[in-house]
Amino acid sequence: MTSSQDVAYSALTTFHQKPPPKAATKSQHIKLTLVVAILSAANALVAARIFEQRGGEPHAITIDLRKSHNYIDPDIGMTPSINGQEIPHDVVVGNPFLRNIFQTKDGRHVVISAVYVDLVYKWTAFLGCSVLESSVRGTVKNWNSNDLEEAADKAGLPLALVQSEDAWLTTAHGKHISDSTIVPIKRATNSSCKELSHNLRRPLEGVKVLCCTHAIAGPSAGRTEHGASILQVMFTHGFEHSFVYTYANLGCASTRLNLHKAEDRERLWNLIKDANV
């Protein structure tokens, strides 16, 4: 498309209604509804462009600013169900590390990541405390923040130290990220493009996507809903919460492979050869 065509096409995207106040989105400084509205509009615009370029009719895109922030916080707007029933959140009930921030001896705060059960075992063993939230809080408060961060790193346990943007930019991680492009793209190989059919019903119809991540909704929300065929590949003995599959993998097929086995690695390479993404 030419730049003039881009301008003409962007006119088909409209935003309506007033965004809710920041407090309604549980944000103190960022208007989350506007942030997500831009991303939603961009995804919809790309899908509509692809659809038109593959022979489909033009589409007008409308973004409701009252609802754009839904799903960013699981407590706001996230009410999916299966056959009218609530989705169970088993295996997370009683986990003291979820949605909690812990204060350290020197008055700073850390976020301890233990979404999965095995990490709950490892963290409580590392801290030498019980799984009760009060026990975790009392033990963390015996640590200075930098000492805890360093020890957790050596133990291979995920932890984030809460700090200002300026302080974070002085760390090795912060320096690396700040010097990197927002979305780095590197060509891995040169291969011929696979032709996609025209006269389709949905923008990504016929596109095959191989997904080896999990708990990421992009392959589902970003591609399946637009007609792509998604195959989710999980480790044979890997674990994911059932509610995460339900939230993030709607419309996806799934399989399990053990990449320690030669035959399963061969299967994966064959899947890669047949995939578009």
UniProtKB/TrEMBL annotation:
Return the InterPro entries for the record: CoA-trans_III_biosynth/detox, CoA-Trfase_III_dom_1_sf
Q: What domain of life?
A: Eukaryota
Q: What is this protein called?
A: Uncharacterized protein
This protein's species is Aureobasidium pullulans
